[in-house]
Amino acid sequence: MERNEIIERVKNILISVLNHNRFEMKDELSAPEVEGWDSLSHMAIISAIEEHFKVTFKLKELNKLKNMGTLIELIQSKL
Amino acid sequence: MEEEYSIRKATLNDTDFLAEVIIGAEKSNSEKISLCTLFNIASDKIKDLIISMLNEEIEGCEFSISSFLILENKGEPVAAVGGWVEEMNDEPPSSVLRSNLIGFTFPKESILTLRSKATILDGLKIGREKLSLQIEYVYVREAYRNKKLADLLIQEHLKKALTEYPLLKKAQVQVFKNNLNAIKLYERNGFNISKIFRSENIEIFEHLPYNEKILMEKII
C-alpha cells in the first residue's frame, strides 16, 4: 500500500475516534498536539488501526513511536 | 515478636505481591477497582491481567516492576510503594506507556467499553510533570498499618530518585480526596496540596472511589 493511502486511512481513523478533523496530517504531528488524543483515546486509536489494517503491533514497537511519521512507517513495515 | 524490616527493589519474583499492592491501592478507601469498573473486567480476572502487564518489564510507569520498592518483615513482603521519574531517559510519558500496556494486555472489548465511558473521567485527568518523581500505588498489608511503614518507603523513593537523577526538583502524588489517611501520610512527608480536580458527573461514583482528586507536590 502506498504511503499516502496509509496516511489517508489513518486520518479517517483519527476523525472517527476523536470526532473532529482539527489536525493536519504531517510526520511531525504528535499526540499532545491533537485535541482529544489522550491516554484513553490512544488505546482506541491503536486498536482501530490494528483492526483496519489487519496488523498487530508489539508493545515495544508502540513504546518507540514518537510521532505520526513513525506510526505510518510502522504500519507500512507490516503490510 | 521483634520485627525486622528491610527495603529492597521489586523483582520479577514479586509480581503476585505487586498485583495485591496495585489492587489494594486502587481501592483507595473504597471497594472499587477502577481497572475493573472502567474496563468491565471481573474482579477475579484483574490480578492475572496486572501480572501480565508487570511481566512485560516496561520501565517508567505505574505498571513497571522497576518502579516499586518493597518493605519486608523477616523476608515477607508487607508493604510497597511505586515511584519513577517521569519521562527520564527520553521515555514516552507514563500515560502512553500505561495505555499501551493496557491496550496490549486487556481484551479488545474492554477497550471499547472504556471509550464509551471516557467522558465520565473529564475533570479528573491530571498530567504528570516531566522529570518529576511520581509516587503511585502506596500499599501496606492490614496487619502492618499505623506503623509508618509507607513513610519509610516514600523517603527511600526520594533518596533513590535523587541518586539516579540529582537534578530532581519535585515529587508529585495524586490522591482521592476521600483518602484522608493517605493525605496525612503525604503531608507528613512534606507534600502540599497543589490543585484539586473534580468531576461533576455523578456516574463517577460507580467507577472510582471518589469524584475529587488532589495533586500534592513536594519541592526537593
Overview of the structural elements:
The complex is a heterodimer of chains A (79) and B (220). In chain A, 59% of the residues lie in helices and 0% in strands. With 79 residues, chain A is mostly helical. In chain A, helix 1 crosses helix 2 and helix 1 packs across helix 4. The longest helix of chain A has 16 residues. Chain A starts with a helix and ends with a helix. The model of chain A has no long low-confidence stretch (mean pLDDT 92). The radius of gyration of chain B is 17 Å and the shape is globular. Chain B has one domain: 3-Layer(aba) Sandwich (Aminopeptidase), CATH 3.40.630.30. In chain B, strands 1-2-3-4-5-7-6 form a seven-stranded mixed sheet, sandwiched between helices. Chain B has eight helices and seven strands. The longest helix of chain B has 16 residues. Chain B is of the alpha+beta class and 220 residues long. Chain B is 37% helix and 23% strand. The interface between A and B is medium-sized, with 16 and 22 residues.
**Rg of chain B, Cα atoms, Å:** 17 Å
Name the helix and strand elements of chain A from N-terminus to C-terminus, one letter apiece: HHHH
**Spatial arrangement of strands, main beta sheet of chain B:** 1-2-3-4-5-7-6
Task: Report the biggest beta sheet of chain B as strand number plus sense, adding barrel if it closes.
Answer: 7 strands, mixed
